[in-house]
From TrEMBL:
Pfam families: MbnB_TglH_ChrH. This is Uncharacterized protein. InterPro entries: MbnB/TglH/ChrH, Xyl_isomerase-like_sf.
């Protein structure tokens, strides 16, 4: 898939869904009529036939979007062919209209970092990333959607800011943005910048999906724990984003201290009301398998 054209413009609206975790399985299937789609962690389904069977069961009941965590797109090392084949297999199995990953690195030569590490926003790395995104979109045969991550430190001597870096990548490749509103809020709180200004600087014409999650304070540091319900302040930032641009797809993420299903569904319903009040959620847009 060549760059230039916005590859995300015709992607479907799925609605408001959940990041699938096994702890939520019973509640998800009991309330499938209130969950528009699921997002799965690709890397959980790469190793065993049993995992594939479990994924097929999800796909039989929901639209499913695969979300990667270990591509390490920002690394200088060549992309691992076996890993690419694995994520292509999962992407094809789900029949997803796009594939998402984090704009970060998780490994360097000889070392697995074990964390979504921030990038050095330079012209040299930008050129490298553009080439990687084009390669991935050709391999996957669908648009790639890149997510902003949280960071404990800002890499010094970057020549570009994060939003400009995103702008340049999507302009050159046609890829999309997965805007994690919680990550933007957390970074703004920890590094003392204006989260709303950051949203306005992002390439919102390429926005495909949003993540919402809850964090917690550790002293004076806000942690992206995916362990709490979404706070009113994060919902307020989400509402600001909804006023700025169409939002096709929203996923709530939870990885620890799982709340009741009623609480999750209540938050999902609130997100829908925000989208509807902003007249951004297209009424025809649930599902994509028939396309």
């Amino acid at each position: 898939m060549s760059g230039g054209k916005n590859l995300t413009a015709s992607l479907p609206t799925l609605g408001v869904g959940l990041g699938y975790r096994s702890e939520l399985r019973a509640g998800i299937f009991a309330h499938r009529d209130q969950i528009d789609f699921l997002e799965i962690i690709t890397d959980n389904y790469l190793s065993t036939p049993e995992a594939i069977i479990a994924l097929e069961e999800l796909c039989a009941s929901f639209p499913v979007i695969p979300h990667g965590v270990d591509l390490s797109i920002g690394s200088c090392m060549p992309l691992e062919p076996s890993y690419l084949r694995g994520i292509k297999r999962i992407s094809d199995l789900t029949k997803s209209p796009y594939y998402s990953e984090h704009l970060c690195l998780t490994r360097v030569p000889g070392k697995d970092i074990g964390h979504l590490a921030p990038l050095w926003f330079t012209e040299e790395l930008l050129e490298h990333l553009i080439s990687r995104v084009l390669t991935l979109q050709d391999a996957l045969e669908k648009p790639l959607i890149l997510e902003n991550v949280t960071y404990m430190l800002e890499i010094p001597h970057s020549s570009l800011d994060q939003a400009t870096f995103f702008q340049e990548i999507v302009s050159a490749t046609g890829c999309g943005v997965l805007l994690d509103v919680t990550n933007a809020f957390i970074n703004a709180a920890n590094h003392h910048f204006d989260a709303e200004h950051f949203l306005r600087q992002m390439p919102l014409s390429h926005l495909v999906q949003v993540h919402l999650a809850g964090g917690y304070w550790r002293g004076d540091w806000l942690v992206d724990g995916h362990s709490e319900l979404v706070s009113p302040e994060i919902f307020s930032l989400f509402q600001t984003l909804a006023s700025l641009c169409p939002i096709k797809n929203v996923i709530f993420e939870h990885d620890a201290h799982f709340p009741s299903m009623d609480d999750l569904l209540h938050q999902m319903a609130y997100a829908r009301r925000i989208l509807q009040s902003s007249q951004r959620l297209r009424p025809e847009g649930i599902g994509f398998k028939e396309a």
